[in-house]
Amino acid sequence: MTNDETTPSFSVHLQTERKAKGLTQRELADLSAVSLRAIRNLELGRTVSPRQDTVRLLADALRLPKSRRAALESAAGARQGRDRSQVELPVPPASPLGPLIGREPDVAALTEIVEWLGTRHVTVVGAPGVGKSSLAQEVAGAIHRRGRMPAVWLSGPAGELPDGLAEELGGKPVLLAVDDLLTSPEGADALHGLLRVCPELCVLSTSRRPPVDAVAAVYPLLPLSVHGDTEAYGPAVRLMLAHCTRLRPDLAREPRITEVLARVCHALDGIPLALSCAASWLPLCEPEQLLEMAELDPLSLAVSVSGTRPTSQPSLPPPWPRSPTATQDCSRPSWPYGLRGPGRTRPN
Questions:
Q1: What is the three-class DSSP state of 256?
Q2: Cα-flanking dihedrals φ and ψ of residue 219, to 5°?
Q3: What is the rounded average pLDDT of the residues 254-279?
């Protein structure tokens, strides 16, 4: 009889030790920072040769004595000696296609918090469409390119971190930028567990609401201001003028256009995503028509000229109380006033 036939499988070993400690799979995942999905796959035998670091994290969480730890490691199989350097971390943040207009002070302040103040977890909190993801990606990319700390980027409300991430990060000094992970309790728990077992890890996350725990530092991100402190127009107008220069260069240098676009920015509350959607209409309509749309029905500009709604749709209040029976057809894009049938008029 071979040794493999007499030695219980790793899945049996893991289940036995976990149940002996009176832990559920979820509780073991929280203690070890190994994902719940990974533990399930191990106990079901779907993963028959776990990595050495995975076994170490599980054994540490179970607080196994030396002999039982050795038995668990012996059952783990052939992947014990795998070199961690051969495993790739998630990708670094993408290089920006252009400057992040209007957010220069936020980039500088957030970079200082992450790099110099020793804060291990910072959460950028703001309304939908305000630019949280762009700011986090800009800061993480800048830190990564300067060589101060390698940065990796994870995006999407998956609820769980990728399998093996804790093992790969280990004691490395890494900045992990995660977008929209805190929207689920599972994602928040996984992130906190990762911080516990990776002592050199720093996390930069985004969220629409402040975290419930007191661990993360909160960086509130506000809409762009329309009026500047030392100049006539603020960053919202600079962003809108940049869109105008790209889409309608023939209009960008006219002073009257700047005033019109400033009023558009005011009507859209300086929310960058709303300004981007509104600017997409400039090739089809004049700025004055755009202003009329923004003042009459700002939500109509939440649909870009392509007819698609952005993932993070900005929340814009209507400029006047609407009728309780009023409905809006969201299945097709709203067209600029005067380009489709009789133009709508401002209510009395």
A1: helix
A2: -115, 100
A3: 91
